[in-house]
Amino acid sequence: MSSLEIRKIPFDFEGAPFIWNPEQPRFSVLMNQVGFLAIGFERYICKAFREAESRITDKRILTEAGLFREQEGLHASAHTKHAKALIKQHPGLQRALDRVLESYDQLYEKHSLDYHLAYTGGLEAIFTPFFKMVLDNRAVLFSGGDRRVTSLLLWHFCEEIEHRSSALMVYDHVVGNSWYRFKNARGFQAHTRWLAEMLTEEFRQNVPNVPSEAYEGDPFASVPRWDKYRSAMGILSSQLPWHDPAHQAIPNYYQEWVDQWAEGDDVTQIYGQHAS
Ligand SMILES: [Fe+2]
Ligand SMILES: [Fe+2]
Fold first, then answer.
1. pLDDT tens digits for 3-30?
2. Ligand 1 center from residue 209 Cα (angstroms)
C-alpha cells in the first residue's frame, strides 16, 4: 500500500510580501523562484504521469503514480495561489509565470514520454538531499518569515520527502533504462537553471524596492558548511543510475510535521511570524 496521503489545505496568501522573510532576503527570492518554477514543473509532471498510466501494468505502481500526481497537482495549485497574490501586487510578474508555463509546454511538445519521466525522476531525486538541508535549518531560514508562506513551503517540502521514491519507481517500471536518465541529467538541470535565471531577471524588472542583496550571494550563507557539503554530495549521488531514494536520510522535521497534521493543527500557519 502506498504511504502517500492527499492533503487539501486552504492556504491564503493575500498581501503576502515578495520578500516574505526580511531576515533572509536572498533565500526569500530563491524560494519565490522555486515556487514559480514548481507551478510549471508540477503541471508538466501531471501531464506526463497521466499519459504514462496506460503503460503501467502493476497495480501497486499505478496507485502510487495516481497519488503522486494528485500531490503534485495540489502543490501546483497552492503555489499558483501564492503567485497570484504576488502578481496582484506586482502585475508584471504575470509574464514570469507565463514564461515558465510556456517553457514546460514546449519541453512537453519537443520530447518523448520517456524523456519526461526521466526528467521528473531525475529532478525529484534531488529534492530529498536538498530539502533535508533546508528543513534541518528551518530555524535560521524560516523563523523570521511570514508564516503563510513558510507553511506553504514546509508542507510542500515534507510531501516531496514523502513521495521521494514515486517518480523513479514509475520511471523504472515504464522506461527502466537508468543510463538514459543519467545521460540526460545535465540537460534537465540546464533547463531548470535557465528558468531560474529568467525568473531572476523578471523579478528584478517587475518588483520594485527589493534590496540588491536579495539577488546576490549564497542563499544558504547562514547554513553550516557541513550541511551544505552533505546536501551537495547527496544531490550528486542522486543522479547515479543505481540511486534509490528509499535509502536516503530524511529530516526529523518530516515526522514532526506529519504528527502536527495528524493532530489537526492548522498547517497553514505552522511556522514563522504572523503577518504584520
Ligand atoms: Fe511538489
Ligand atoms: Fe515531487
1. 899 999 999 999 999 999 999 999 999 9
2. 30
Query: CA 273, CA 276: separation in Å to the nearest integer?
Result: 8
Q: pTM higher than 0.90, yes or no? A: yes
Cell matching residue 227: 550541511
Ligand nearest to the CA of 121: 2
- Class (C level, CATH) for 25-269: mainly alpha
Provide DSSP, 75-143: HHHHHHHHHHHHHHHSTTHHHHHHHHHHHHHHHHHHS-HHHHHHHHHHHHHHHHHHHHHHHHTHHHHHT
Å from CA of 124 to ligand 2 middle: 5
∠ CA 216-102-7, nearest 5°, is: 80
What is the C-alpha separation between 81 and 15, in angstroms, rounded? 11
The set of cell numbers assigned to 166 is 514515486
3-state secondary structure of 43: helix
Q: Each residue of 58-107: pLDDT tens digit?
A: 999 999 999 999 999 999 999 999 999 999 999 999 999 999 999 999 99
146: which DSSP letter? B
**Ligand 2 centroid from CA 41, angstroms:** 9
Q: Domains of the chain: which residue ranges?
A: 25-269
**3 membership: H or E segment, kind and range:** none
Q: Which string of b and e fits 250-275 if b means at least 16 CB within 10 Å?
A: bbebbeebbeebeeeeebbebbbbeb
Q: Write the CA distances from 70 to 15, 39, 150, 263, integer angstroms.
A: 27, 14, 22, 23
